[in-house]
Amino acid sequence: MIAINLFKRYLIILSITAITTNSYAQYDSIAVAILDSVSDKVSALETCSFSFDSEFDISNSEYGLITHTESGNVYLKGPDKLCIERIGDRGHRKFFYDGKTFSLYSFDKNQFATAPATISLIELIDSLSSYYGVEVPGIDIFYPDFVDNILATSNNLVFLGPVMIDNIQCYHIAGAADDMTFQFWIKTESPGLPLKMSIVYINKPEKLRYSIKFSDWKLDEDISDSAFEFTAPEGAKKIKLIK
Known about the structure:
The chain has helices at residues 4-10, 29-43, 121-132, 146-153; strands at residues 15-19, 24-28, 47-60, 64-77, 81-88, 91-97, 101-106, 111-116, 154-165, 168-177, 181-187, 194-201, 208-219, 237-238.
């Protein structure tokens, strides 16, 4: 459970007020303390893996919002290794980064693409999103400035108290920015990691939704470097990465 002394410290002041360029932003200091604790734990890890189940909306001109699902596993090893496997109604894909090369493999098409890359994990993640539209599930919490970004871009942040999800007690946190509302559910049991996160994009007419549920966290367990190296299966066709 998140250390009790943190709550003694922050219960003295229930909320703090910060000035932004647009308005006064209300930040509940208990919510900030909980998210800070998550960020501190994650940033101290040498290796990490977790499973995920996500849902996201895509607007369809004929049928309106269609909810898609995806499940998979994420493996990270500092400072420069990443592996993601994703299975959903958009296909079965796996992404590899071994610190030197980024590879993408489609199980459905037996096709792969590779590109040289010698950058940090954060730089890789930003590049994948910007150039190739590849999002790393739940990656927000791994950014060193995770909490600072929330405080810089949000209009409010509130601690809603303890709740139960699938018989797991969690701290419930909610917030809003100009373009979205978001919620976090953080396990109260040590080491206090996220169980669920959700976003609603309120700046879009369709109010697109995204949610992800985390499970099977493994922290600082040995992960072989070979887990991040891609070897093309027999008969696989090499294609070009298209930005």
